[in-house]
Predict the 3D structure of the following.
Amino acid sequence: MAVSRGYVRFDWLTIIVYFALVAIGWINIYSTSIDDSATGLFDFSQIYAKQLLWIALSLLIIVFLLALETKFYERFSSIIYIVSLLTLIGLFFFGKNINGATSWYAIGGFTIQPGEFAKAATALALGKYVSDIQTNMKEFKHQWRVFLIIALPALLIIPQPDPGSALVYAAFIFPLYREGLPFVYLLTGFFIAALFIATLAFGIVWVSLGCILITAWIYFRKKRRRKQNIFSYIAIASACIAFTFSVNYIFNNVFEQRHRDRFNIVLGKETDAKGIGYNTNQSEIAIGSGGWTGKGWTQGTQTKGNFVPEQQTDYIFSTVGEEWGFVGSMVVVILFLVLIVRVLVLAERQKNQFSRAYGYSVASILFIHFFVNIGMVTGLLPTVGIPLPFFSYGGSGLWGFTILLFIFIRLDGSNSYYT
Amino acid sequence: MRKLLLLIIVLITGVVFAGRLFYLQVYDDSFQKLSENNAIKILYDYPQRGYIFDRNGKLLVSNQPSYDVMVIPRDLKPFDTLEFCSLLKIDPEELNDRLKKARVWSPRLPSVIMPQLTKTEYAYLSEKMYKFKGFYIQKRSLRDYKIEHSANVLGYIAEVDNRIIEDNPYYQMGDLIGKQGVEMQYEEILRGVKGVKYIQKDNHNREIGPYKDGIYDTIPQRGTDITLTIDAVLQEYGETLMVNKRGGIVALEPATGEILALVAAPNYDPSLLVGRERSKNFTKLWYDTIAKPLFDRVLQGEYPPGSPFKALTALIGLQEEVIDTRERISCYGGFVYGRGRKLGCHAHPSPLAMQGGIANSCNSYFCTVYKRTIEKYPSPQEGIDNWRNHLTSFGLGDFLGYDLPSGRPGKIPSSKTYNAAYDYPTYKWYASATISNAIGQGEVLLTPMQMVNFTAAIANRGWYYKPHIIKGIGSKDSLPTEYGLKHYTTIDKEHFEPVIEGLFDVYNYGTASHLKVPGIEICGKTGTAENYTRIDGKRVQLTDHSVFIAFAPKDNPKIAIAVFVENGYWGSRWAGRIASLMIEKYIKGEITRTDLESFILNGSLQDEYAKPYSGEPFRINK
C-alpha cells in the first residue's frame, strides 16, 4: 500500500536517542570549554556557543531532509556521490590546511570538511548499486565495481592525510556482506588484520611458525576424510608468511614513526607516558579518576587543566568519563548501542533493497566510529583520530552524521508497516 | 547469519567497553590518585606546635620559625647551579645527589633539599628564589628550648621517615614528627592540624586558581599546649646531682601518681637536637655506646633492685601470715640453705623482729620469710606463682602503662621460669633454689620507674595511680581516665604500718641514719645490688649498684623517690644521699646540708665506669 504524504511516520525512538546524544555531547563540550573569559551562552567566540549554533542549523537540515521524497535519494544518489567525489578532489586545489591535514574548505570565517559528508554519499551510491536488479554480489565483476565505489573516496581522503577517516570506509564491508558478498571476503579481511597485529606483537619468527603449524594441523585433520592437494596448503601457508614479512617491511619502511608509535603503545611495547603515549595516558587518567559517579559537571580536574589534548573533539568521551563516572559513561555507551541496534532492526524491516543496504551502511559507519573512538579513548585501540558521532565538537561532523542518519529515517518513514 | 553478524559484533563491543570502563573507573583506583597529582597542586601551611609547661606553669618548650628549601623535581628548569650552591653553601655534587634522591622518591611530590635555614639565610635566599623554578621555601616551626635539661622526658622532633609516611597519610616528606618522650606520646595534640590549599593547574603546570574555589582548603589549627607533672626545679636539680654518674632518679607524688622528676644520667641538652646540627649531634649521641645518653635508664634500665625489695618480701610474708611483727629471727652472719650453702649477711644485732630486720636490712630474716612464703603451698610452683601475683599487683613484671613511649617490663620470675631453667619435671627445684629473690637479687629485675611505683604504693598504704607525666591538655585539666583509676595491691592495709615503721627506722638508727633531714620524717630503704657484665665472653662482677627508695613525709607523703646509681657501691653512699637531697629540695625548697650537697655535686664515678674498658685487671667495691 502506498503511503501518501501526510501519513509518513518517523521512528521516534531513533530521533529521541539522536537528540539525547547531541544534548549530552553539547553539555560535555560546554564543560571542556567553559572558562572565566566566557560572557554568556551565546558568546560565539566560545566553542560551546558555536556548537550550539551547529546544532540549531542541523535542525533545519533535519526538516529539509525529512521533507524530501524518498525517491529523490535513490534517483539522485549517483549525482550526490559524484559531487561528493569532486569536493574531495577539490581539496587538492582549494583545501585549507589545519593541523597538518588539508581536509577543509574555508568559507568566510567557517570551515567545512567534505570528508564528513562523503560517507553518506558513498552509502547512497552503494545502496543504489547493490539494489540494481542486474547486480549480483556473488560475481566478481560486480564485486570489484562496488569495491571501487567504496575505495574512491577513501583513496582521496588518505593523502589529505587523514588515514583515520579513510579507515571508516572499511565499515562498508558489513552492508556488502548483508547484501550477499561471500563470507570469505570478511574472513580474509579479518585474517589479514589478525596477521598484521600478530606480526607486530609477536614478531616474524613466531607468526611464521604459527602459520606453518596451524596449516599443518588443519591439513592432517581433514586428510582422513578426503584426499587433498597438499600444494594448496603449502601455498596458503607461504602466502601468510610472505604477508607477515611484508607487514614487517611496511611497518618499518612505509609507516611513519608516529604510526609505529601508536601501535607500539597499544601493544604494550612502549610506555612513554610523557611523549607519544601522552594523549591516551591522560585520557585514561581522566576517565579512571571518575569513579562510580564522576566528579560532577564542569568539576573535572583533568578537563579543567586541559590535560587531555583534543578533548572537545576526538577525546570528548574522556570528559564524560571524568565528570559523570562509570554511570554516565555507561549511559552514553548504552545510548549508542540502542541507536545502532535500532537502525539495524529498522534496516532489516525495509522492503526495498536500497533502503536496507543504506540502513546497514548507516549502522556500520556509526558503529565503526563508536568502536574506534571509544576504543582509542579508553586505551584499547591505537590512536586513530576520528570523532564520536553527535558528540565531538565540529559542524561538519555533526551535520555529516545528522544527514547520514536522517536520510535513513526518511527512507524508513515511507514504509507501510506504520499504517 | 548475514542478518546477525553485525548485531553480534555491536553487542560484544558494548560488553567489552562496559568491562573496560568498569576496570578503569571502578576497579582500578590508581588513576584516581594520578589525577589528583597532576592536576592539583597542594600547598601546606604548618601550624605552631603546642607549648610545653611544667607543673608550676613554667614554659619549658616553645617554637622558633625555620625555613626548608624544598624541590619538586618535575618542575625543575635549568638553573645556575653554582649560584644556587653558593647560596645554600653546599657542593654541586652534594646538590646533585640530593636532587637525584628527591627524584627517586617522587618526581611530583616535594622533597627537602636544604633543611632548617636560619632567619638570615632565609632572608637572603628568598629574594633570589624566583630564579630557581621548581624550588620553594617551606616555613615550619622548630622547637625552642627554654631549659637545658629534661631531654629524656621531652624527646625531640625530627623529619618523618618513609615508613610513617606510608602508614599515615597525614604526613608528607619533610614534615616534622615527635620522636621519643612527650613529643612522641602527645604528637597528635601538640602538632595541631596543618592547613591545606588546593590549587588547580593546567597542562603547562601553570596555576589557574584555587581548586573548586577553595571549598576544600583548610586553615591550620595551632597545636594544643600541654602541662607536664614535672617540677622543672626538681628535675634540673636532679640532673645536676647526677652529673658524672650513671643511673636515674624518678620521683612521684604518691597521692596522684604524677611524675615530679624523671632524671636519666647521662643526659644531653635538648637544644642539641634542633636545627641543622641535629643529625650531626644525634649521630654523636647515638654512637656513644658506652655512656648511652639516648638510653633512658629510668624507664628502660632493668636492674636487680636489691634490698628495697625486702619491703615487699615483708609485706607478702605478713599477708600470707607466715610471720608476724613480733617474731624474732636469729642471724648467724648469713642464711644457710641447701647443703652448707650460705647467703651472707653483714654485722648487726641479732635476733631481730620485722622492724629491726628492715632497719638493719638483715638477709637472714628475709630469706626465712621468703622461704616460708613459698613453702606455705604444696609445691614450689604454686608458691612462686602466688608470690608473683602479689608483686604484679604493685605493677611489677610488666609495662606500667605510664604515658611515655619507652620502657621495659622488668622481670618477676614465675614457676615457668624455673621449670624451664631446671628442666622440670626431670629435675625438681625448691624454694631455696630461688632464695636470692628474697633480697631483690636473683631473677628479679625492675626498672627504677617500677621501684618508685611500689614505693608509692607502700607510701599510700596499699594503692597507686599509674604514674603519668601529663597534667593538663590545653586550658582544661582533663586527663586520660586511666590515670584517675586507683589500683589496689593484694596486701591488706593493716600490714603496711609495721613495714613503714621499719622503713622509718632505716633513718632513725638503720643503714641511712646519717642521712636524716631535720624536720622531715623520711621512710626509706637502702640497696646494694650485685651485678655482672661480660668482658671477652667471661662473666665479670662489677662494683655494686647503689640503690635507694624513699618517701616523705611518713604521714601524708608528698614525694616517693627511687634513685639508682650504677656501680655506686653501697646504697647510702650515692643513692641515699641523692634521695635525701631531692626530698629536702622538693619539700623545703632549699638545701641546708651544703657539705653533703657539694660532695655529691663534685663526686664522680667516671673512674669506676672506665674500669671494665681499661683492659687491665681491676678491683671492685673499693
